Amino acid sequence: MCFARGRNGDVYGVNGLERGVRYDVAADVKHYLGMAAPTNKPTLSSSASSPKYYIAGIDIIDGGFNYKKVPTVTFSGGSGSGAAAKVVMTDSRITQVLMQDYGTNYTSAPTITIDEPDTTPPTGAGATFTVNGSGGITDVRPTNVGSGYTSAPTITLSGGGGSGAVLRAEIDAAGAVAAVTIVNSGTGYTSAPTLTFSSAPGGGTTATGTAVITLAVTSVTISSAGSNYVGSPQLTFVSTDGSGAFATCTTDPTTGAITAVTLQYGGEYGVLPTASIVTPERFLPKKAKLVPVTAPAIKGKYWCAFRAIDATPDDRGGPIASSLSPLADIELSSAAGSISWTLNTAGIDTDRATHFELWRSTTDQALVLYRVATIPKAQTTYTDTFGDNELIDPERTIGGVKVFAALPIVLPNGQVNAYRFNPPPQNKSAVVMFQDRAWYGVDVPGRKFDGTASSTAAEPNSLYFSEVDEPESVPETNELVIQTNVRGADSITALMPFGAGMVVFQHRHAYRLAYAAQPIIDASVQLICQRGCLNQRCWDTYDGVAYVVDAMGMYVLDGNSAVPISDAVDTYWSNSVINFASSAWFFVRIDPVTRIARFFFNESGTHPDRALCFHPVTKAWWLEVYAQRFSSSECLLLNNRQQVVLSGQSTGIVLAESGVQDIDAAGAAADIVCNIRTGNMPLSASDPSRAIRVLYKPTASGDGTNPVYLNLALHYNNSATARPAAVYSDTGTGFIATQGSGVALDMQTRRGGGLADSTGYAVCKFVGRMDDKSSSGDRHMAISYTATPTVDGAIILYGTAVEGVAG
């Protein structure tokens, strides 16, 4: 299985062959991954008895007047309770009533009581005004046409306060004034000027007449400001001749005094009007009249569904929910008292689910559902008496527990919401946590999203991602397909979160995937290199780079390019030494303390029993062969240091680099047999000095009765069999050769038999048959070490130097 750990500590595991598992670490409980949704709709019925109503709103029949403070609205009667409203006022009137609580369980309209207004009339008193106006001559009315004029008389104007008026008289054949033309009406006249006609010659009669002026109000001056006026009182203009002036006043909000007059229209007057404030009847104190509007609490068409939830606590991301059941609808043509629910639990994970949540829409809409109630798993019926106003109340509680929640079916951007809680796909064998989502990939051919067998094509390059912070919620719409533009078909083999992106490995290619917020919209995928990965466990990261193994060898990936590093041991790949038939069990692990990268594999069998080891500092490669097979490994924080543990075939969990003993299947202490073999080293014909120098740590002091031997063997020309020593040899440099066998080093600090103390440095001489003309000559050599540590001490080699080889 492949495992990933979520933000809340839970572990998620998949293998692609069946439904994945979730391990609740805190509760030590294992479940199937995700919550299966109900497959059947709920069954719904209604009861027409005891219908209930709520206060849907308040009609304002009369807003009243002269409310000096916001009045209080109270509801009484109607058998219900809870209704509350707030008044909005404008200029001492009630202009709007806002419902704060619609109330519940009303059987008839309640009575509304509202405060009385201030009974003191808001008329004010004491304000007086001076009206200012002016105009021009608009007509001349002759009182005597005169006689005896031989030419038109002149007309002189005097008085009236204005100027600029010019009048021209015209006479008829009889010498009388026939008409007066207004050449210029003049301006600034506040009263009609006096007209004087020039005298008629020869004893004729002098004409007379009067001027008519039209005045407009130009301003209103406050003579006395008065007091106790409210709002914006209007001036009333009174004149014996004319009309049309309009002006309003501004009042001091504290004293009610008139502070300004705003003239809007000057009107037309023959005589300037007087101005005063007369309060209309509509501004006299009056009590408001309000009427409640009731509506059925349960009436119309509703859409209903339910889902299962588990017992994961809130502080750890719970509860985990399933997707909703299919929607069921019920249409009520008249007011009902309740809706009865009956749940069909088919398809639900009854072992994981602990409760059911009931969800219902408000009347005649299927966009948003509201949580009705949460009931125990054993309860499959429920009586729902909530009206729309209660359903959408964020403070709604049942038994003192707040139950309100809203669930849009689809989000405004079109994204799936109520049905996003699908369990992860069952045909993917890899899961990783990348940013705030779980990612599922690596297809198991011939299986569908739900894990059932399929005869159709598989999803070799599909990735599925979870919802944000919901690793177990993976709707089928959350799919990304790696679009490949390379020659030859390929498929995803591994996923690796790495830096700011996630590396998606195929057999022969590697891609970098990154996204900002919503992968389906803003994900970008770029080809990194033409190298791949064997499986989800054949990569590990250390010091900012990844060590990856594919069918061509091991390479280092820095996120942008791949650097091969396994050329020295390439024969393991090129000569088919590695048993790729069981590569599903291969894995890579880096020891952060020793910095050694190990590729665990086998040459036969199923599980790995050996490892190719690489040290990034010395660039050295060697082979380790183990006494048992391993299936996986992990790096854990143990005793405040990073240590590698392995899953052993016969001894359970093995702690790497930990000492001298293992535990066998029976639980007893057992020695570990160690075997290390280097890569092939070409023999040098120019260097006759051939020696192997070993720097090691002597084991615990003893008397020589329990020696710890390091056995050295030489493999010429890639032979699997070591070449035995030709003669017995003990040169005093540490190693002792036995004829027909190998070479051994006693590593104890104090050695018995009169031998000198171990110094931690030993030398072994070797020879080789170098003959370029002979096909049987030695061309290259490899070194292998074999040892069995005991309770007396571990085997620690600091380094090996080989003389007489090239490179």
Number of strands: 61
The helix content is under 10%
Give average pLDDT, whole number.
89
Largest sheet report: 11 strands, antiparallel
Which structural class fits the helix and strand makeup?
A: mainly beta
The radius of gyration computed from the alpha-carbon positions, rounded to a whole number of angstroms, is 52 Å
Low-confidence segments: none
The count of helical stretches stands at 3
Strand % is over 45%
Concise structural overview:
It is built from three helices and 61 strands. The protein has 807 residues and is mainly beta.
Describe this structure in words.
With 807 residues, the chain is an all-beta fold. It has three helices and 61 strands. A hairpin with a 6-residue loop joins strand 45 and strand 46. It is elongated and about 180 Å long.
What keyword list fits this structure?
807 residues, mainly beta, eleven-stranded antiparallel beta sheet, 3 helices, 61 strands, 46% strand
